[in-house]
Amino acid sequence: MHDIVLIPGDGIGPEITKSVTTILDAAGADINWIKCTAGLTAQEELGNPLPDETLDAIKKYRLALKGPLTTPIGAGFRSVNVAMRKKFELHSNIRPAKTLPHIESRFDNVDLVMFRENTEGLYIGKEQWVKENSHAESIAVVTREASEKVIRSAFEYAKKKNRKKVTLIHKANILKFTCGLFMEVGEEIAKDYPEIEYEDLIVDNMAMQMVLQPEQFDVIVTTNLFGDILSDLASGLVGGLGLTGAANVGDDAAMFEAVHGSAPDIAGQNVANPIAFLLSALMMLEHIDENDLADRIRQAVYLTLEDKSVCTPDIGGSGSTTAFTEAVVKNLNK
């Protein structure tokens, strides 16, 4: 049995968490859920958006499934999500974007995976006023150690998943030290994987190429800010954030999460789409080597997408969270 920390989250989080755990339980996943809390819900209940009990549980079990969180105003840090990634040194944010059957999107054959460095870059929070309300500075940090971790993770993923190419994204033509270092590390590591094609692209060219011919990309690796932007762009290619999963993986811990927001405007209405969170859970199953189980659930999702009467309104359906969940459970045995 796998002990996994479960954080339902805020807004629609509890609804999509119930959907996902119902589906995993019905599929026979051997999981003991360790329920914890974080975000706005934790702030309201415990006076702390990131309780020690939650951090202790993740530290103990090293594996978590986390719903969308809202960082309360004045919480003491910029983002609960970022704080958790840094706390457990989850250096690689992994965001697949794959065309799904029976989902309208602009492209038919997208199947790419974005690796984003998750712990440094411009997101370290080193900002200051040079002259208040007139001149601000923000510092980006890129280290060889963190670059090596995320780039090697991308190549190892490509090797394990029989992917053919890794594309490194940078702006080394302008940011010669930070992106230059990242690019240098990429070139060094690529030599260890001669069977995998390697290329690098400047980030602005990459953005254009992704909307012109996204099918040309396979595994992509980049720095924190660029990855944040391009991973959302990738989700848009296949239908939006409601259709893509996400993982945050470190050397000895991993957290799988919904990348979309907590959507408080539709919370409690039974119309939230659980697919993104479910795909994150399937990434989690693959992480613990439950590949056959993940594939079985994925096929049930694909079959369910054929019937728009059970799909949620955001993907053209007339159904509900509950109806979709029940349909996936039913299709597990087909």
From TrEMBL:
Q: Where is the Isopropylmalate dehydrogenase-like domain?
A: 3-328
Oxidoreductase: is it a keyword of this entry?
yes
Which Pfam families does the UniProt entry name for this protein? Iso_dh
Which UniProt keywords are listed? Magnesium, Metal-binding, NAD, Oxidoreductase
The top EC class is: oxidoreductase
Listed cofactors: Mg(2+)
Per its record, the protein catalyses:
D-threo-isocitrate + NAD(+) = 2-oxoglutarate + CO2 + NADH; (2R,3S)-homoisocitrate + NAD(+) = 2-oxoadipate + CO2 + NADH
UniProt-recorded name of the protein: Isocitrate/homoisocitrate dehydrogenase
Organism equals Fodinibius salipaludis
